[in-house]
Amino acid sequence: MGNKVAGFLMGVLLCLGSVIYSADSVTAAEKTSADFSDLKDLDDATKAKFDELISAGIFDGVGEGTFGLKDEMNRAQFAKVAALIFNLKVDKDLKTSSFSDVNADDPANGYAVPFIEAVKAAGITDGVADGVYDPAGKVTKEQLATFLIRGLGKDADARATPGVDDHTVSEWAKGYVAKALELKLMSNGADGKFGGQSHATRDLLVLGAYEAQQQYTEAKRQEEEQKKKEEEEKKKEEELKKQEEEKKQQQTVPSSPSGPQPDSSSPPVIQPPVQSTVATPTASPSGGEVTSGTQVTLTSATATAAVYYTLDGSEPTTSSTLYVGPITITNNTTIKAIAVKSGLKNSSVASFVYTVTVSSKSSLDLINEAAASGDWTGIDESTFADAGITGVTSENVYGIQGILQDYDYPSSALPKTLNEIQTIVTETININAINNYFAYGTGNEPDKQTFENAGLKGVTDQNLAGIISYLQSKYLGAGGGSGGGAGDIGGGFPGGGFPGGDPGDIGGGFPGGGSSGPLYSGSSKQDIQAAIDEYLDSL
């Protein structure tokens, strides 16, 4: 991250495609929110934030008298914003991307190659699919929240956060959105919902960047104060050691020449100073009976002390596992831990014993209960396997959980039989495969069996080629235009909820292409079936 406010905010200006007027026009530094018609109705507190950035020359409008408050940003633009906001290492001479759809020769987004590689290297985003970034795709609100939280170095905090209870937010993003709301980087809409899959606009980036900069500055100040305090404590400890050594040396010198003389052949014995001991680690919860999936946190009261732990009953040392985040308990476990800090004695060993209680409920009951409540704690791919449900992996489990949870929306999920859940899982996996093939070009071309497994009707050996050609014209995304973007973080299923396209958008070049709307990487079974029916009706 940059050390100066100007460095932090200048990144935002360079990445939003704002219009910079000629030298004879009013400079950005002379403007205020009053110069833009779409900013005049903002409240005073928000105007003050915009005025600060506008008067500093950080932001200008997208046209004369227009700031572009609700203009949307694409993923290439945001990559540059993120790289400059968080002062990432950027190789400006880089011309080759690790993503197949990012090309330096692209007249619209080629400039972003080094910035896209920088945000990937920093772990802010890995793209929308394996080897696919989708630079022209729009950034959703939940993705913006995730990027800001990751840029502030709070990814682990977000993962440990229970997450928002909001059906408009994808399962994978709920912890990030909860953290963004907690830090006041973003806010809910007037209806109390976040609207996670809606596109992020310019005003959200300006305000989010402003709040993130304020918090970064405060965190930096606290970090510097803590560092100064530790240096002062270390200096005091060294001074105390020096005084103790001098005192012990003085005690070895005879008080009077007439008194007993020490043996000149034996040097005086100097006792080493007594070292302070690091506080013994504590755990939360501290032990006892827990449910599978319980997360245990380890801490030491000694500031900046490192904690090392073992799970196999052996004594921990500095060669053991370094504690960096919550430990998930899935079976009977004994955690042994020590705390270590340079210049101090290692803490004593702490031991915490956990016994996992076994539920009398079947795996199918647990899955149905989680779908109804929205609490999937302890429910993973192994739970589905235990229930006899196939096809659920660590990569797609979160997306499948989201589908089951929202299947009966707006009602809570109703209990389902094993066969019903297996059908939903199989259809979901095949719908996702169809979406990925047409939106990103990944995987194999779907055949008649793939469409049948996805629960789609009307596909025969005779019309398969025509339907595939028609669907290719309907999809937007990598290789087909500006769509995509959902599922950037979640892994498994784009956005976790398969939102459909906008019904008013322009379709493909086939007869009736505009009636059902375009398809995206997250199109639902109903969206795809409507496009297939549309093609069959046009024959």
Features:
539 residues; alpha+beta; five-stranded mixed beta sheet; three-stranded antiparallel beta sheet; 8 strands; disordered N terminus
Give the strand order of the largest sheet, numbering strands 1, 2, ... along the chain.
Answer: 2-8-7-4-5
- Relative helix content: 25-40%
Summarize model confidence as the mean pLDDT.
81
Beta-strand portion reads: 5-15%
Structural class: alpha+beta
CA gyration radius, whole angstroms: 30 Å
Question: Major sheet, described briefly?
Answer: 5 strands, mixed
The total of beta strands comes to 8
Distance between the termini: 58 Å
Total helical segments: 15
Low-confidence spans: pLDDT under 50, at least 5 residues? Answer: 1-29, 478-514
In N-to-C order, the SSE pattern is: HHHHHHHHEEEEEEEEHHHHHHH
Shape: globular
In short:
This protein has 539 residues and is of the alpha+beta class.
Protein architecture, described:
The protein is 37% helix and 7% strand. The chain is built from 15 helices and 8 strands. It has helices at residues 5-15, 44-55, 75-85, 113-121, 141-151, 155-160, 174-182, 202-251, 363-373, 381-386, 397-406, 418-440, 448-453, 464-474, 525-538, and strands at 282-284, 288-290, 294-299, 306-310, 321-322, 327-329, 333-340, 350-356. The chain has a 5-stranded mixed sheet, with no helix packed on it. It has a 3-stranded antiparallel sheet with strand order 1-3-6, with no helix packed on it. Helix 1 runs antiparallel to helix 8, helix 3 packs across helix 4 (113-121) and helix 9 packs across helix 11. The two termini are 58 Å apart. The relative contact order is 0.08. The model is unreliable at 1-29 and 478-514 (pLDDT under 50).
